[in-house]
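Tokens as discussed.
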């Protein structure tokens, strides 16, 4: 009986410790976000969004940073989404169970956990030096595509796995081929889960700085990029540039840019959450 009581006390203590740690983390997050909002919210206006970087904090804006982020996001989506979905479909629907397939699956799962700077070093060697793209948008997009490909592949496979087998059997029973079944039945049913994985992967890519620093992305770009081969900067790089300066006005600019980046990230994650909930309701037939 004494051992049972001890285990119950340990269980209760662990519960309260967990609650305390969670509340502490939420409180720290609230303090940090509140401090950023207080410092940067008043700085956000139309001129801040549409102005080029400047040595004067009052005239500096994030035009080149958010347009560079949009370029990177668009190019990364074009490269990574078709490859990731195609690989996920092949591995789940066409790939045969073998030692090689198991090895590939393990490596894909492991790649999702590799530090992002490793992808930056890989991108530096292949895209910047071997392919001679330099510190351009296309080099950054290809590097980030490598970073998020494992996430999209895993998300696609999990979404396809969740599609009921009865749906496939019904399609085969009506005379559809394997590809017709995948294209017209499986993918529409799994679309919510696939989109969720894509958005979460892009949310990670939009906040990455280490790979872009390694491939040579600039912290100060006085022009808006017009082609995939132009030099660029992104919001995280611009924030890093501003907060590293000693002037308080640039710290305010950095806080304002952080708010913009957080807003983009929260919107993307909110869309992913909505799609996931909608998809989960849809597959409960």
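Sequence:
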């Amino acid at each position: 009986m004494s051992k049972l009581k001890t285990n119950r006390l340990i269980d209760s203590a662990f519960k309260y410790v967990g609650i305390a740690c969670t509340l502490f983390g939420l409180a720290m997050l609230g303090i940090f976000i509140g401090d950023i909002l207080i410092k940067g919210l008043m700085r956000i206006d139309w001129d801040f969004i549409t102005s080029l970087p400047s040595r004067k904090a009052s005239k500096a804006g994030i035009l080149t940073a958010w347009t560079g982020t949009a370029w990177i996001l668009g190019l990364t989506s074009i490269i990574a989404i078709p490859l990731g979905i195609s690989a996920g479909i092949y591995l789940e629907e066409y790939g045969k169970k073998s030692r090689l397939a198991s090895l590939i699956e393990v490596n894909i799962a492991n790649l999702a956990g590799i530090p992002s700077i490793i992808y930056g070093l890989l991108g530096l060697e292949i895209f910047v030096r071997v392919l001679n793209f330099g510190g351009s948008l296309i080099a950054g997009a290809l590097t980030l595509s490598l970073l998020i490909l494992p996430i999209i592949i895993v998300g696609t496979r999990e979404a396809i796995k969740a599609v009921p087998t009865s749906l496939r059997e019904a399609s085969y029973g009506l005379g559809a081929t394997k590809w017709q079944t995948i294209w017209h039945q499986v993918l529409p049913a799994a679309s919510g889960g696939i989109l969720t994985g894509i958005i979460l992967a892009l949310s990670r890519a939009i906040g990455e700085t280490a790979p872009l620093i390694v491939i040579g992305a600039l912290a100060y770009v006085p022009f808006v990029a017009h082609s995939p081969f132009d030099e660029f900067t992104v919001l995280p790089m611009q924030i890093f540039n501003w907060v590293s300066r000693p002037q308080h006005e640039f710290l305010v600019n950095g806080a304002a840019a952080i708010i913009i980046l957080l807003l983009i990230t929260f919107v993307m994650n909110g869309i992913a959450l909505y799609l996931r909930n909608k998809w989960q309701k849809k597959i409960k037939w």
